Amino acid sequence: MSASTTRYGTYGYRFAEQQIGPLFRPFAIGFDRVKDINYDWDGMKRVDGPLYLLQYTVSGRGAIRIGDTIHTLEAGQAFLVDIPGDHRYYLPEGSEHWEFYFALFRQQHAEGLWNDIVRKLGNVPSLPADSPVVRTLRSLYADAQHNRLQDAYQASTAIYQLLMDLLRSASADHQARDNWPDVVRRAAELIEHDCVSYSNLDDIAAAAGASKFHLSRAFTRYVGMPPMTYVTKLRIERAAELLRSSNYHASTIAQQLGYSSASYFTKVFHQWVGCTPGEFREGRATASIDRLNIYT
């Protein structure tokens, strides 16, 4: 039966070493549905490593032991492990089937990214079916199934996309504003409405109705930066807009944005943008940007 008419499959990849650059190398990409109780992989007994494995449950139920802890894997749950490693994943008793996508890829060049992902997400994260990671897994499998990964560079791009989506998922709380707690949303709206008046954490916390310690922890978790860093971010974005759209002197912009002196404003602007306000305005140190967006 041809690949185009087979729903499940596993596609392996091997690349010669003459390619230029630090490439991410897939080892195998697949979509499978297992029903055999003998489906059992011991991470310490495998000989195909060193590899990284991402496996995502679509339906049914699987299980994985990582160290001394056993995790049940149902739809929407994934696991991330190193091979070789102290883990064992298998079809547990009582499970009628386990359907999943998986991607195995070489550890070379990916170690730093992978360790950061596992540190932030954990070994057994939950991922919504419509999340970027799962969409990329589906797309990666479709590309493999239809032989669209034609060379090492194209394959490396696909694995890099998967890693970036995993990192994005690790920071998902920072991006899903609808999921922010009320106190975080109130604080963010206060700062966005008037990033000049709210110049210290005590005032922001009081206006948002929370202690400054609770607000600082929650805000950093969900927004991705402390409240006062968010204030600075908005001020610098506004400063960049004024530098490009007005003839105001830098000292006037500094005063409008709540900075105590033009020299301090220049120092902060340089830290965030990489050039002085004057250089930014003239475009001597950076491209002629109409709007500056700052992300952390």
UniProtKB/TrEMBL annotation:
Entry's SUPFAM superfamilies? Homeodomain-like, Regulatory protein AraC
- The reply on keyword Transcription is yes
Query: InterPro entries, from UniProt?
Result: AraC-bd, AraC_XylS_family_regulators, Homeodomain-like_sf, HTH-like, HTH_AraC, Tscrpt_reg_AraC-type_HTH
Which keywords does UniProt give here? DNA-binding, Transcription, Transcription regulation
User: Where does the HTH araC/xylS-type domain start and stop, copy by copy?
Assistant: 185-283
Specify the domain of life of the species encoding this protein.
Bacteria
Entry coiled-coil feature ranges: none
Entry keyword Ubl conjugation:
no
One Pfam family recorded for the sequence: HTH_18
Q: Per its record, how is this protein called by name?
A: AraC family transcriptional regulator
Q: Which organism is it from?
A: Paenibacillus terricola
